[in-house]
Design goal:
InterPro entries: DUF6230. This is Cholesterol esterase. The chain is of the alpha+beta class. About 15% of the residues lie in helices and about 55% in strands. It has one domain. A hairpin with a 7-residue loop joins strand 2 and strand 3.
């Protein structure tokens, strides 16, 4: 009886922590799968992982910045931004430690098979990126605020003084693996959306 009571306590704590956020995420996810909405993916003060089989973007800019949106921290990141992007085989995952219960994973995938994810004014705050990349019409050394090819600097970002920046007419990335602090877009259409919540670590890579 004592063991069952403890088990019940664990599940109640899990429900209190997870149910509101999962329900909200699911509602947003259904809307995104049916149309194009402004959207963001982040977990306060915590990294998440992103993979993509292929990303084709137009109007690219990348710059160094301080991410100040999460947990009151100033986190140095590289911001990759596109005016328009199409993504094949997108996966985003985050592992959330829940007291007593343990790790819980939220994993989102979209754009598989003959479907694609479509985004406008896409911003990704990342601190690690691995991919094969081809840039067209690239300009290295442009000041972040002076880019005319990308969507500009994201609202709330603080570009690092004297930091790097580059822009390009278009970019193609394949075999993408990255760790990020935030993903946001003016419009984000997740065709073929699938979301899964599971106990333990179930990440994109």
């Amino acid at each position: 009886m004592e063991s069952l009571a403890r088990g019940g306590t664990r599940w109640k704590r899990f429900a209190v922590v997870m149910v509101p956020s999962v329900a909200a995420t699911a509602a947003i996810g259904v809307a995104l799968s049916q149309g194009a909405l402004a959207a963001s993916f982040n977990v306060s003060g915590q990294q998440f992982k992103v993979t993509a089989d292929r990303l084709d973007g137009k109007g690219f800019v990348q710059y160094g910045a301080l991410d100040t949106q999460h947990g009151g921290k100033n986190i140095p990141v590289a911001v990759s931004a596109f005016k328009n992007a199409k993504i094949k085989g997108l996966c985003q995952s985050v592992v959330i430690p829940v007291p007593v219960f343990g790790d819980v994973s939220l994993k989102l995938s979209a754009g598989n098979g003959d479907k694609q994810v479509e985004a406008k004014n896409l911003f990704i705050d990342l601190d690690q990126l691995d991919a094969d990349a081809t840039f067209r019409g690239i300009n290295i050394g442009v000041a972040a605020g002076d880019s005319t090819k990308g969507p500009g600097i994201k609202k709330g970002d603080k570009a690092l003084p004297g930091s790097f920046a580059q822009e390009a007419d278009s970019a193609t990335l394949t075999g993408v693996k990255q760790t990020a602090w935030a993903t946001s877009a003016g419009t984000f259409k997740l065709s073929g959306l699938s979301m899964k919540v599971s106990k333990g670590k179930n990440e994109c890579f």
